[in-house]
Design brief:
homodimer; Arc Repressor Mutant, subunit A; DNA-binding; 250 residues; 2 domains; mainly alpha; Tetracycline Repressor, domain 2
Amino acid sequence: MQRTDSPETPGPPNREPIPEPPWWSSPRDAAERSRTPLTRDAIVEAALAVLGREGLDALSMRQVAAELGVGAASLYWHVSGKEHLLTLVLDRVIGEIPRPEPDPTRWQEQIRQFARDTRTAFQRYRGVARASMGRVPVGPNFLLVVEWQLSLFEQAGLPKRPAAWFGDLLALYVAAHALEDDVRAGETDDPGEIAAMLESYFATLPPERFPALTASAPNLMAGSPDDRFEFGLELILRGLEAMAERERAT
Amino acid sequence: MQRTDSPETPGPPNREPIPEPPWWSSPRDAAERSRTPLTRDAIVEAALAVLGREGLDALSMRQVAAELGVGAASLYWHVSGKEHLLTLVLDRVIGEIPRPEPDPTRWQEQIRQFARDTRTAFQRYRGVARASMGRVPVGPNFLLVVEWQLSLFEQAGLPKRPAAWFGDLLALYVAAHALEDDVRAGETDDPGEIAAMLESYFATLPPERFPALTASAPNLMAGSPDDRFEFGLELILRGLEAMAERERAT
DNA sequence: ACCTGAACACCGTTCAAGT
DNA sequence: ACCTGAACACCGTTCAAGT
């Protein structure tokens, strides 16, 4: 804002910003190193950025550090290791799942919507679904989700044991489906080709050795991912109903 | 067998086996390099050995090669890469699942037993369950299993689409459960400690913020892995029944 | 308290070269 | 046809050292 080339300025006019001596700034703070002082949250965010851009296989501590313009060793002050980082990332993504006020009169629809929202959250961050398999993300957001689910089931009057165990099953189902979504588009970087490959491969199989398979091939491949997701979702909900009934009978 | 120190042997008696000149044998063929000429099957077997001994994280092309007394580069003649090797390993394990003659009169029990057998096969080879997630193991054994399942469903009179889609769901369920089995015992190398840790952690949570969770904690942890496996298995079978009914109604 | 560089002990994969 | 050694471009993690 201040004009330095006014007539009263002595000496020769100079419009250029005066260059700083190079040793005033470290070699890499300009674009790379954000001046924020490297918090755990910033590391998680950087991991999500790498994940979205390059996928899970490319997610290394070194890449995350590079994303922040920092040495890899620096991360270890804030995070105990890669395993810990992945847990934090997972919990961060779980935090994006909406948890509406439980309404026992329509608990089934709320669970359906919760499942869809969870799938959507995973779809936003490619690779996280795979990272979630075999990892219990005991973080604050995970706990909130469990609490939400259990209280919904409780208010809906479901028996305790089936309710508690169903949560695991649902999480598993959604995560596995999200993983399939990832595989289909992105992680193996061939969009819908894989289905076509499978279908044409099935077509080459000898029908006398694989009668049922070759006959069912259209059914196996039929339906959009969404259709299949909804089918499985409905299936496990009906199963839950049946198991709750059985429990009440005892 | 042949005694060389017999009296008629001329010269001084020599009981020591005559050492071969060192260049007669390459430096490493004695114990390491089996004289079998490195087939694809041998590589798969070596991978299973490493897997069982060290777990999935330690399964590297170099380790597998070392197991065979061979350079890592040699594997690439028989196998296109690590991804390919994992697919082969997976199909190999799937091959151990029994496929009894389909009996439509007791198809539900046959499916239940199939699920249990699949879990057992995974339990025999720690780490394979995790490797299976997100990988479609289109190998001969996988195809045989799919064929077996479809023909059983067909003979049982299940509608085609639910039958075809149910296979995926079941595979998913069993694999995810097997993965949990792995995590519980071995992969994270703490046997049943993890459950205790979780339970004591839950106990520290403030009941006013997590009323349902703290109240349900005993139910969440209750039951043996087998009980939980059977619960989920029964649940999805009941769900299948319901979905088949719905399909028949349309 | 927080971050660094350098090092350690590994990876998967390629490739010219050997037999 | 099958296997090798050496190299390339990476890994996760540790640790003494700096500020």
